[in-house]
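Supplementary Text 2. Reproducibility record for the structural model of the 511-residue chain.

All settings were left at their defaults, and a single model was retained for analysis rather than an ensemble. We include the record here because the model underlies the residue-level annotations in Supplementary Table 4.
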Amino acid sequence: MNTAKPTLTALCISLSLSACSLAPRYQQPDVALPSSAFKYDMQDTQTVQAASVGWQDYFADPRLHRLIELALKNNTDMRTANLNVEQVRAQYAISRSARLPNISANGQAKRGQSSGSDTIGESYSVGLGVTSFELDLWGRVRNTSIAALQRYFSTAAGRDSTQLSLIAAVAKAHFNEIAATESMQLSKRVLDTRMETYRLSKLRHEAGVISALALNQQEALIANAKSSYAAAVKNRELARNSLQLLISQALPEDLPPALPLSQQYTIRNLPAGLPSEVLLNRPDIRAAEHDLRQQNANIGAARAQFFPTISLTGSIGHAHTQLSKLFDAGTKNWGVGGGIHLPIFDWGSNWANLKATKVARDKAIVAYEAAVENAFRDVSDALVARAAFNSQFDADKAQSKAYSEVLRLTRLRYRHGVSGSLELLDAERNSYNANAALIATELKLMENLADLYKALGGGLKRYTQDDVQVRKQIAEIQKTSASNDSPSVAEAVNEENTQNIESIERNPAAQ
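Retained model, structure tokens:
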């Protein structure tokens, strides 16, 4: 006779009865968006999504690539997010194990004497057993496991959000360092030019050619250039401090030199696509949806608390009074048992628990709606900012070019005695301010492109997915972006100031 059959049959029946669930059917909330399309999106036939573009293919600077690698490896927030995922995954494994019976081995040996007897008795047993396995008739254990799984998915999505924010923060700190360096170069060249102008003007003042007023104004411009240089040095050091915090170490000495701001991106006109596509790519929205699914499962577990809890125990093994005969024929034994627990008076505890889970579900719905609305706003804001900064950059570039020409002509007129020193000082001041504004606007544009990439869910992949069609679309977008790129602001400013210095050196007598 097979004595193990009743135990195995009971276990199979218990597992088959565990399919019932009292959780409500999940329905994704319907969030009304302000528009079915983003207003300032690029009118492009390309359909590539930001989430399909790897960050190493989006950012062009090898120095930035290295910094992002270090940040993803060392950043404390990123490491904490990774550990949170591992912790929640272990907790899910614990919860999932409750859906299956725990089988344990046990052995026992006894030796004793009963009262009034001279005989010393012995007994030995060994076997396998299942202790208090709950028949999940109402889906309590199953829904608890599902809730733990959804929590794991939500934590993983939160980790992805941390990665996107980290990459954008590293990129923006990198851009600030470059912009500060370019501002330092601009201030240094302008300062050199003004110092040379001041030296020659001082000689003219001593000769009685110009007034003290003109000389004092040149001194003020020199002080302004020194102040701007000091501010640029401060901004560069602050940017480096931010980078060191983000990568959790000192900046490596072997970092490649940074590219100019105008060469930081391989794609300048990244399309946003449809809002529905953004919802699929944003990790914060995925996290909110998993939170909602978790609360949905918690309702099922809370409802199951109103019904009886049935548990089973079972064992199979061998027993004998002699250890040497423990596994002989006729020593097998088995047993199956069960218990039931039915709540009768809990003074409203189960009802309050169910109400609390429903309120938590409603809060999760509101949080999901807020996440969708915030995502739409983030993308819309980034797109309108990109359009505005592009227009502002073009205007500032035209202004810088115009003031540079004004300065050139004013210097020419000054050398021939047509313009006075005050007019020259105004031209120099306007040209410097225009160039400084151009650098600041380009920095804002670079930061905006990083924010847009993050808002569209880009940054989870290092390399673009191996898709021929996607790579073809990216190549087309890069071609379009390259045709619209402008020369480096720093290069234009350096060229202009070099011409100014050469002009002074060629015509010292005119000063």
